């Protein structure tokens, strides 16, 4: 074996090359490295406190699967921290059945309690039905409605935090998407802290982990399953942005990190300006929102016309 194919820390074959310093890691060293980084993220941003009940958004896809594996591994070191996985079944035929099953199998295997909530229970119809004639807005609509189900489901079980599997690539994509849409409000909105009696604090422990690292981690730990792609993502702007960012990163290394840092800077600036602006509640449903009517109610009204 050529030396460049070996792990930088031992003699085992490398499975991944670090993007920043070129360190090559074997399977076991990658697992240790990622577990350490996730733990560090959580500690640095005080994401978990003793006694927390974490509602973990488990779609059954790769990011949320990795997130559950990491948190389940770290859980014994925390005092009285409980984890409940929540899966939202949007009702997307030919896609959701398999991922819901994957989520079920994983939680049974790990012995984590698991709740499944469907769009039909919350909004009267499944996503396929709600979307008829509005397919081009699928991801926006689905994202807003899914967040509402997750928040309510987490509240019902008395959760104190909502954990999602967003990785560094997702985060950079969201920043660029909001910039390209000129959506400053969404760009600077920070859901990490929550506010008493309103938003549930959201935590993203995989924020510094790349998509490639997540996939390699699952592969090494034997949790790599071939799941179908969501049929609606083919039309998504996110896919274009993702390719664009990959190209940008190849000739401008660190571009994704820089985007996220810029966003964080803007958030700090915006929150210092907006301390006085109290959060309002939606006229229709009473949920906290930034205008008169929340996004969920706006979307539901637009789908019914
Ligand atoms: Zn090694
Ligand atoms: Zn509302």
SSE blueprint and pairings:
Elements: E1 16-17, E2 24-25, H1 27-44, E3 53-57, H2 62-74, E4 82-89, H3 96-110, E5 113-118, H4 119-123, H5 127-131, H6 138-156, E6 161-163, H7 168-181, H8 184-188, E7 202-203, H9 211-220, H10 237-251, H11 255-274, E8 280-281, E9 288-289, H12 295-303
Parallel strand pairs: 3-4, 3-6, 4-5, 6-7
Antiparallel strand pairs: 1-2, 8-9
Helix pairs in contact: 1-9, 2-9, 7-10, 7-11
In a few lines, what is going on in this structure?
The protein is built from twelve helices and nine strands.
Q: Key features?
A:
alpha/beta, binds zinc ion, 12 helices, 305 residues, Rossmann fold
Report what the structure shows.
By secondary structure, the protein is an alpha/beta fold. Helices cover 49% and strands 10% of the residues. It has a five-stranded parallel beta sheet with strand order 5-4-3-6-7, with helices on both faces. Strands 1-2 form a two-stranded antiparallel ribbon. One zinc ion (ZN) is lined by residues 7, 9-10, 12, 26, 28-29. One zinc ion is lined by residues 7, 9-10, 12, 26, 28-29.
**Helix content, binned percent:** 40-55%
Number of individual domains? 2
Biggest sheet details: 5 strands, parallel
CATH architecture group name of the largest domain: 3-Layer(aba) Sandwich
Small-molecule binders: zinc ion
Radius of gyration: 20 Å
Number of helices: 12
């Amino acid at each position: 074996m050529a030396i460049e194919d070996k792990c930088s820390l031992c003699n085992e074959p490398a499975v991944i090359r670090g993007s920043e310093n070129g360190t090559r890691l074997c399977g076991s060293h990658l697992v240790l490295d990622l577990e350490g980084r996730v733990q560090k993220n959580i500690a640095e941003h005080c994401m978990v406190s003793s006694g927390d009940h974490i509602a973990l958004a488990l779609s059954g896809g790769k990011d949320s699967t990795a997130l559950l594996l990491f948190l389940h591994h770290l859980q014994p070191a925390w005092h009285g921290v409980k984890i409940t996985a929540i899966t939202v079944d949007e009702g997307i035929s030919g896609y959701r059945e398999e991922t819901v099953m994957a989520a079920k199998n994983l939680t049974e295997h790990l012995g984590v309690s698991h709740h499944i909530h469907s769009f039909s229970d919350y909004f009267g119809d499944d996503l396929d039905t709600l979307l008829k004639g509005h397919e081009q807005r699928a991801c926006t609509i689905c994202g807003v409605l899914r967040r509402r189900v997750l928040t309510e489901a987490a509240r019902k079980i008395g959760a104190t935090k909502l954990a999602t599997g967003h990785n560094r690539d997702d985060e950079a994509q969201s920043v660029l998407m909001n910039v390209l849409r000129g959506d400053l409000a969404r760009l600077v909105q920070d859901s990490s802290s929550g506010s008493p009696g309103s938003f549930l604090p959201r935590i993203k422990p995989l924020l510094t982990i790349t998509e490639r690292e997540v996939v390699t981690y699952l592969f090494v730990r034997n949790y790599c399953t071939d799941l179908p792609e969501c049929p609606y993502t083919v039309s998504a702007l996110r896919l274009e942005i993702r390719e664009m960012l990959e190209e940008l990163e190849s000739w401008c290394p660190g571009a994704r990190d820089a985007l996220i840092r810029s966003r964080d800077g803007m958030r700090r600036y915006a929150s210092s300006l907006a301390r006085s602006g109290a959060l309002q509640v939606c006229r229709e449903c009473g949920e906290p929102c930034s205008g008169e009517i929340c996004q969920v109610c706006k979307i539901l009204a637009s789908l019914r016309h």
